[in-house]
Design a protein that fits this description.
With 307 residues, the protein is mainly beta. 10% of the residues lie in helices and 37% in strands. The radius of gyration is 19 Å and the shape is globular.
């Protein structure tokens, strides 16, 4: 495979049909092959058995996990913790019913309880007027028997960003469409599931919870800058780009960049022969040390993620 250089990659999403999902991913992004309900669209994933498959160019049909093992730091960059493991998992979540009250372990808890650590962030793509989520505990919360009244509640609106660190108990309420960036882990410990029949792990979850940890919420704010850094963490960096004019984006040797088109329409030109058209719901992985040229066909809002 190394006979051909890397280039901006597009993927076939991997869908999951959880009981809390709806049909917004299919209708909003004009996708015909989703299950019903469709709770999750894994946009960019290198996890075994759930890896994204390339849909463009010479690497069409090849999985992201295999590409990562072949190209190593030429694909993931110098900041990635492991050159043979793709370091992020990117999803879209359509929350039609409440998610379980849950927590993800940090490194120490994962070592003790099993699984892998999971730090994640949410960008609210859309929210009903009454939509909300829960993140963190209220003062005096009873860890032995957590209920809704023990959880800190946040109303949600389009453009909000939430930093959900490991150990932070959380749940998402109905009416939210969420863009999620996370470490490549599928480890979830459920405190409870609102009386539904799925298994829970309350004792393990309580051992993973950091009771004093609070959510970081960054409301959408108008900015005169096209490119707005929103969140910088040790595991990923997130920004929004309001594309109303032509511009060039550069990646460094430190990291790839994942672009997601949240709204509008644009073309992406690169060194390869085939430019890409970005429509709402499209994701592109730009390898390290590359430049791409963006031209809006309609004012576009792009989400940018790097390490």
């Amino acid at each position: 495979m190394k006979t051909h250089p890397l280039y901006p990659l597009t993927f076939q999403p991997h869908y999951r049909d959880q009981i809390w999902g709806g049909n917004a991913i299919a209708t909003r992004y004009n996708r015909a092959n989703t299950p019903n309900p469709c709770a999750e669209s894994w946009e960019v994933s290198g996890l075994p058995d759930n890896e994204s498959i390339v849909t463009n160019g010479p690497f069409e049909g090849i999985g992201l996990g295999r590409l990562t093992q072949t190209f190593g730091r030429d694909l993931v960059g110098a900041k990635a913790p492991d050159p043979e493991t793709f370091p992020l998992l990117v999803k879209v979540l359509d929350v039609h019913d409440r998610l379980s009250v849950q927590v993800h372990p940090d490194t120490d808890a994962a070592r003790e309880l099993g699984g892998a650590p999971k730090h994640e962030m949410w960008y609210v793509l859309d929210a009903r007027p009454d939509a909300s989520l829960w993140a963190g505990l209220r003062p005096g919360a009873n860890l032995a028997r957590l209920a809704e009244c023990d959880l800190a509640t946040y109303a949600t609106a389009e453009g909000d960003v939430f930093d959900i660190r490991p150990g932070l108990v959380h749940a998402i309420g109905p009416g939210n469409l969420i863009y999620e960036v996370q470490q490549p882990s599928d480890t979830t410990l459920r405190v409870h599931d609102w009386g539904r029949s799925r298994p829970t792990q309350p004792e393990a979850a309580r051992r993973a919870i950091h009771p004093t940890l609070a959510a970081e919420r960054l409301p959408a704010t108008p900015s005169k800058r096209d490119l707005c850094p929103r969140l910088v963490t040790p595991d990923f960096t997130f920004a929004t780009l309001h594309l109303s004019r032509e511009r060039t984006l550069h990646t460094t040797a430190q990291s790839f960049m994942i672009l997601f088109c949240a709204a509008g329409k644009a073309t992406l030109e690169h060194d390869g022969p085939h430019p890409l058209t970005l429509l709402p719901g499209d994701s592109v992985l730009i390898p390290p040390a590359q430049s791409v040229y963006l031209r809006p066909l309609a004012p576009a809002r792009l989400l940018l993620t790097t390490l």
